[in-house]
Amino acid sequence: MLAIFKKEIHQFFSSITGYVAIILFLLANGLLLFVFPDTSLLDYGYANLDPLFELAPMIYLLLIPAITMRSFAEEFKTGTMELLSTKPLSWGQIVTGKFAAGLLVVLISLIPTVVYYIAVRQLSADPAHLDNGGMAGSYIGLFLLGAVFTAIGVWSSSLTTNAVVAFLIAIFTCYIFYNGFDALSKLPAFSGSADYYLRMAGIKFHYTSISRGVVDSRDVIYFLSVIGLMLYLTRLSLQRRIWD
Question: What residue ranges are annotated as transmembrane (predicted)?
Answer without folding.
Answer: 12-35, 55-73, 94-119, 139-156, 163-181, 220-238
